Amino acid sequence: MKSIYIFLTVVFTLISFDQGFSQSFEVNEVKINKYVIGDHYKPQEASTKLAIIIGGSGDVDRDGNQSMIKTDAYKKLATHLADNGIACFTYDKRVLRIKDLAFTESDLRFEDYVTDARSVVKYFKETNDHDDIILIGHSQGSLVSLIAAQEIGDAVISIAGAGESIDHTLYDQLKKQLPQSKKALRKALDSLKIKGKVKDYPPQLFSLFRPQAQPLLHSWMQYDPQELIAKVDQPVLIINGDQDLQVDVDQAKKLKEAQPKAKLVIIENMNHVLKESKAKDLANKQTYQQPELPLVDQLKQVILSFIKEL
Asked: pTM of the prediction?
């Protein structure tokens, strides 16, 4: 028997200055299961389409924030979609429920995040309120969406998604910071990917290679985004910003090469947290702590147009 728990309903009335009319929508907190709790943005007029935002790596909550980052990026995107008649669901990653559910970090596997995404889709499919489910995966969530799309979902939007397995992505990122430890880094990543654990790694990278984090990282390394996106039959939109410090535009191009039918959009001056930045240094990173900054307009327009054309 399916259970539904709605704890809070808040009704927003927003004014859309671009279109000159007010759009009301509700935000309902919904418990999908013991691992997944999030916000359902429901337009006043019934929406046949639902976008599910799947968060990036780390302890990311439904609004797109985590312990060291506050951007409200997912909340802003969900609000934009709902204000334009598209329902949306954002949810906390299960890692945030470790204390409540008495499991440990070492229990986590990448497949758990795929299971959570599938559970969300299944839940909303069973409500019969939405005909089309669009998976919007950001960063790590891009890979989750590509795996989930093998079985569920009607369209996929990849934002700042890697085009290579995470061991290659990490190596490319970290070798620039630790050029003197490139060989040790490559050896540690290879060992973790193949054997499932590693003891010898650059000491500066303890937070990455700490024992309790290795099971999740090992399981994550087993997936190749290019192989997965090549198998996706649904419409696909690939988005990347040219000021992204974590994921270079070449990664988006790799995804496009693997899936020629996908639409690729490179957004000028957009960084990893979907905000505008013309810098590649500290000024870029400062936007990670400025939730008052708006999302890049082109991002909102491209996503909305893609969904409406489905």
From this structure: 0.91
Is the same domain home to 28 and 63?
yes
Phi then psi dihedrals of residue 270, to 5 deg: -105, 135
Residue 56 is part of which domain span?
Answer: 5-165+224-308
Last residue of a domain, one of 222, 241, 257: 222
φ, ψ of residue 92 to 5 degrees: the values are: -75, 140
Residues 217 and 229 in one domain: no
Residue-by-residue pLDDT tens, the chain, 310 positions: 333 333 333 333 333 333 444 458 999 999 999 999 999 999 999 999 999 999 999 999 999 999 999 999 999 999 999 999 999 999 999 999 998 898 899 999 999 999 999 999 999 999 888 999 999 999 999 999 999 999 999 999 999 999 999 999 999 989 988 999 999 999 999 999 999 999 999 999 999 999 999 999 999 999 999 999 999 999 999 999 999 999 999 999 999 999 999 999 999 999 999 999 998 889 999 999 999 999 999 999 999 999 999 9
Same domain, 123 and 174: no
